[in-house]
Amino acid sequence: MRVSECPLHGAGVRPDHLVGRRLEQVVTSWHLYGSEAPSGPLDVWLIDSEAIATRITTGSDWCLIVETSPPFAGYDMAESGRVEVASISGETPFADHLGETVLAVSEEGGPDSERIALEISFGSGRVRCESWSGDLRLSGK
């Protein structure tokens, strides 16, 4: 079993397919509830120069899932709020790297060989994606 293989969700896609591709668009999903600040993002889709959408999200076992899938439509959860899906304009650290080429990716595994973090490097910096207590956390460096 390689480092990025979750016992529950499997290996997903190898994120190194992003290397050498330009980040063209970033789409995110956010949980909105009443007048509270949005929580999330829940999912991030990196759409590259090959028009491939790479989804980064967390699994029910708190692993970090990386898969290729197109963004889904937002949906209403009645009294639990709604999930909105839209292109970003600055809400995540990926916004600073739009139009840049991915130079490298690295993964970190947890105690059961599941992926818990992914770092994506660009010429002007890096973005770290990690699962933190089941939530997706993004940070720029």
3D structure, described in words:
With 141 residues, the chain is mainly beta. The strands form two sheets. The protein has a six-stranded antiparallel β-sheet, with no helix packed on it. It has a four-stranded antiparallel β-sheet with strand order 7-8-9-10, with no helix packed on it. The N and C termini lie far apart (30 Å). The protein has one domain (15-140). 0% of the residues lie in helices and 48% in strands. The chain contains no helices and ten strands. A hairpin with a 2-residue loop joins strand 8 and strand 9.
Question: What's this entry about, in short?
Answer:
With 141 residues, the protein is mainly β. Helix content is 0%, strand content 48%.
Helix content: under 10%
Instruction: Give the domain tally.
Output: 1
Largest sheet: 6 strands, antiparallel
| Low-confidence sequence ranges | none
Backbone structural class: mainly beta
Proportion of residues in extended strands: over 45%
Nearest-integer average pLDDT: 86
Kindly state the number of beta strands: 10
Q: Largest beta sheet: what is the strand line-up?
A: 4-3-2-1-6-5
Compute the number of helices. 0
Element string (H = helix, E = strand): EEEEEEEEEE
Rg over alpha carbons = 15 Å
Give the N-to-C terminal Cα separation. 30 Å
Globally, the shape reads globular
Question: What are the SSEs and their pairings?
Answer:
Elements: E1 23-32, E2 39-48, E3 53-58, E4 64-68, E5 75-76, E6 82-87, E7 104-109, E8 115-122, E9 125-132, E10 135-140
Antiparallel strand pairs: 1-2, 1-6, 2-3, 3-4, 5-6, 7-8, 8-9, 9-10
